[in-house]
């Protein structure tokens, strides 16, 4: 740890030297950081899952990923790629024990970062919607078992 240096005639505390903000007497430009918590309310509950998936862009780009949570209108995918926000994709959800994946032909990337890729399902064909709805129903906790 470096020695404390003298700043404005005051010895800087070690936390200042480590890159944290500090306030010195007479210095009103530096403010202590504030932290706020934002509560996100979702229309559709998310359920933790572990599913393999395939992301498809313009019928030629295909990349595998792992779906970490799923809702009726979207999912979070862990993947090595970082698609841009707004990218239009199709996504295949590979359900264990089922011969065919659930295919969502019209989806969009809502966010991408270290936590994965947020995908919103825009439109889903009726048979695929039925399969997704059944899966979501199976993921919901049973009443009275909580």
Features:
12% helix, mainly beta, 2 domains, 8 strands, 2 helices, six-stranded antiparallel β-barrel, 146 residues, two-stranded antiparallel ribbon, Thrombin, subunit H
Task: Please sum up the structure shown.
This protein has helices at residues 14-17, 126-139, and strands at 6-7, 10-11, 47-57, 61-71, 74-78, 88-94, 102-113, 116-123. It is mainly β and 146 residues long. Strand 7 (102-113) and strand 8 (116-123) form a beta hairpin.
Please describe the topology of this protein.
Blueprint: E1 6-7, E2 10-11, H1 14-17, E3 47-57, E4 61-71, E5 74-78, E6 88-94, E7 102-113, E8 116-123, H2 126-139
Antiparallel strand pairs: 1-2, 3-4, 3-6, 4-5, 5-8, 6-7, 7-8
Write a structural description.
This protein is mostly beta strands and 146 residues long. The chain has two domains: 7-36, no CATH class; 47-139, Thrombin, subunit H, CATH 2.40.10.220. It has two helices and eight strands. Strands 3-4-5-8-7-6 form a six-stranded antiparallel barrel. A two-stranded antiparallel ribbon has the order 1-2. The termini are far apart.
């Amino acid at each position: 740890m470096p020695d404390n240096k003298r700043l404005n005639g005051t010895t800087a505390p070690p936390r200042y030297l480590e890159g944290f903000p500090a306030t010195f007497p007479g210095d009103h430009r530096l403010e202590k950081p504030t932290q706020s918590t934002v509560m996100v309310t979702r229309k559709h509950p998310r359920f933790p899952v572990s599913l393999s998936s395939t992301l498809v862009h313009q019928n030629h780009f295909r990349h595998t990923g792992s779906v970490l949570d799923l809702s009726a209108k979207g999912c979070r995918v862990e993947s090595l790629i970082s698609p841009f926000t707004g990218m239009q994709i199709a996504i295949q959800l590979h359900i264990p024990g089922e011969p065919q994946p659930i295919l969502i032909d019209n989806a969009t990337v809502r966010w991408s970062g270290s936590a994965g890729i947020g995908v919103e399902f825009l439109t889903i064909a009726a048979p695929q919607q039925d399969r997704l709805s059944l899966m979501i129903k199976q993921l919901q906790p049973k009443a009275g078992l909580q």
